[in-house]
Every structure is written in C-alpha cells, then in structure tokens.
Design a protein that fits this description.
mainly alpha; Peroxidase, domain 1; 2 domains; 7 helices; elongated
Length: 164
C-alpha cells in the first residue's frame, strides 16, 4: 500500500460519510468530475510540483470546476489544500468509489434481508384479508381478553385502595 493511499484514507472516508448523510448523488457527480481533472497528466504533475503552492493548486482545480461543485465540495478541496493533501486526490477518489461500492452492496443485502424477514408477515396478512370473518373473530377474542385483564386489574386496584 502506498503512502498516498494511507494519507488519502481519512479524507476519502470523511468525504464519503458526509456525502452519504447529505447528497450522495451530487458527490458522486463531483467525484467523477474531480477524477477527470485529477487524472490529467498536467494536473497530476501540478499537484506534485513543489514549486506550486497549495493555494495555487486549489485555484487551478476550482477554476477548472467552476460552477460545478457545491460549497461543501469546495470546502473539502480547500481542506485538502490547506493540509497539503491535494497531491493524493486520485487516491481519495478511488477510495471514495470503494466506500460507495461497499455501501451499495450492504444496502442491497439489507434490502434482501428485510424482504426475507417480512415475507411471512405479508403472506399472513394477505391470507387474513381473504378471510375477514377470522379477522373479526381474532379482534373479538382480543377485545374480550383485554377486557378481562382490565377488569382483573381494576378489581386489584379497588382492593388495594379499599373501594368495593
């Protein structure tokens, strides 16, 4: 594992977690745009050029992406620039995509598990819908049981407070 990936990981994780909780779709679009920018030969060289300041690097990227990034995405780039981490933008983008792929897989697994869990309940409900007399009987028995328990509880309360 390269040092760039190690450096990129917390930034990619933070960006992904923010995106997941705010506007994942716009972040995916922004990441695609930044990927195109960061993978240009001249930009890659610029991001690693020690004679170019972090602010100059940020300015170039923001000018290329003018009007296509929201404030949070620009703030993310500014954080990378101020921490002198723009050079690992490509790795951040790659990790962001990995996190997104893992998240998507987990959502699919969760959806399947939920469907598997609720299917018997759904089937039972559908069967009950076809036999409303049974539903009415179940409700009647439930009401009778609740009434009996309430009466027992009230008898106990009356006994405790001394009311007959």
């Amino acid at each position: 594992m390269s040092n760039d990936v190690i450096i990129a990981r917390p930034y990619a994780r933070a960006a992904f977690e923010y995106a997941k909780n705010h506007d994942l779709k716009s972040w995916l679009i922004a990441i695609a745009l930044l990927s195109e920018v960061a993978n240009q030969t001249k930009i890659r060289a610029l991001l690693r050029d020690p004679t170019v300041t972090p602010q100059q690097r940020l300015t170039v990227i923001k000018e290329i992406c003018a009007g296509m990034l929201d404030q949070a995405q620009e703030n993310f780039l500014a954080t990378l620039a101020s921490n002198k981490r723009l050079f690992c933008l490509s790795e951040i983008i790659n990790l962001f995509h990995q996190y997104y792929d893992e998240y998507k897989k987990l959502k699919e697994i969760l959806a399947k598990d939920i469907i598997k869990f609720i299917t018997p309940f759904r089937e039972n409900r559908m069967a009950l819908e076809k036999d409303m007399d049974s539903v009415r009987n179940i409700l009647k028995r439930g009401g009778e049981m609740a009434k009996k328990r309430a009466m027992e509880k009230m008898a106990r309360v009356k006994e405790v407070i001394g009311v007959n």
